[in-house]
């Protein structure tokens, strides 16, 4: 059921480091993005896969996690992701205003693919594209737009209806994610 997997797909910031993800698995998830919509069918996205510990740790050091929970220092030192998929924009194909729509569709596809196989992940937008580009020794026309951190999730995460704040929070070891209710997101035509 689509609803079940969507609810299960929570941004996860703690992983079991003993559970690795091999390149073949990452390639399978990337292959699913080939079936995604793309504005004018330009398909300007490319993917760089990291699963070796040193590579993952190096990229991790260029990222920021859970800005709303600075005291948590996530991901914790023994709960790092074991893989990253770097979503790249090949600007020689397109650099137009729909590229980020393509990125979002691809990112969700990658996460749902991982979740279907019992893994978890987190989209990471808090990084300096120039630094990531340099770290990966990419040519100038390949611009990192979004990172997907991946692994076997260890966190307990719960969706809750939004009441007073949309800020995610942690209580007694559980990560809570408020979501706006249907009443809030449906707009009637005048
Ligand atoms: C485009 C995008 C960028 C994000 N960037 C980050 C990030 O840099 N660091 C982080 O910890 N979480 C990041 N997230 C995760 C959001 O914080 C998360 O989606 C939100 O808290 C709601 O939780 P949920 O994904 O479980 O519904 C990002 C999510 C999206 C969609």
CATH top level assignment of the largest domain: Alpha Beta
Q: Say which CATH homologous superfamily of the largest domain is assigned.
A: NADH Oxidase
Helix proportion: 25-40%
Strand tally: 8
Rounded to the nearest angstrom, the radius of gyration is 17 Å
**So, CATH architecture of the largest domain?**
3-Layer(aba) Sandwich
CATH fold-level assignment of the largest domain:
NADH Oxidase
The major pleated sheet works out as:
5 strands, antiparallel
Would you give an account of this structure?
- The chain is an alpha+beta fold and 190 residues long.
- The protein has two domains: 2-154, 3-Layer(aba) Sandwich (NADH Oxidase); 156-190, putative fmn-dependent nitroreductase like domains (putative fmn-dependent nitroreductase like fold, Single Sheet), CATH 2.20.180.
- The chain is 28% helix and 25% strand.
- The chain has six helices and eight strands.
- The chain has helices spanning 2-8, 23-32, 53-60, 99-116, 129-135, 182-185; strands spanning 15-16, 45-50, 83-90, 120-124, 142-153, 156-161, 169-171, 174-179.
- The strands form two sheets. Strands 1, 2, 3, 4 and 5 form a five-stranded antiparallel sheet that branches.
- The longest helix is centred in the middle third of the chain and has 18 residues, at 99-116.
- The radius of gyration is 17 Å and the shape is globular.
- The two termini are 34 Å apart.
- The chain binds flavin mononucleotide.
- The site of flavin mononucleotide has 13 residues, from strand 4.
């Amino acid at each position: 059921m689509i609803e079940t997997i969507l609810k299960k797909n929570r941004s996860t910031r703690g992983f079991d480091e003993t559970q690795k993800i091999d390149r073949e698995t990452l390639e399978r998830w990337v292959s699913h993005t080939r079936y995604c919509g793309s504005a004018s069918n330009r398909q300007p996205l490319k993917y760089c896969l990291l699963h070796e510990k040193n590579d993952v740790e190096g990229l991790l050091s260029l990222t920021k996690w859970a800005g709303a929970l600075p005291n948590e220092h996530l991901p914790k030192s023994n709960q790092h992701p074991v893989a990253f998929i770097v979503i790249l924009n090949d600007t020689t194909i397109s650099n137009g205003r729909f590229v980020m729509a393509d990125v979002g569709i691809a990112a969700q596809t990658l996460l749902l693919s991982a979740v279907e196989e019992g893994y978890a992940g987190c989209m990471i937008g808090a990084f300096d594209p120039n630094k990531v580009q340099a770290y990966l020794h990419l040519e100038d026309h390949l611009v990192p737009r979004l990172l997907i951190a991946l692994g076997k999730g260890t966190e307990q995460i719960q969706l809750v209806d939004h009441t007073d704040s949309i800020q995610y929070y942690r209580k007694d070891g559980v990560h809570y994610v408020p979501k706006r209710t249907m009443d809030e997101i449906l707009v009637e035509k005048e």
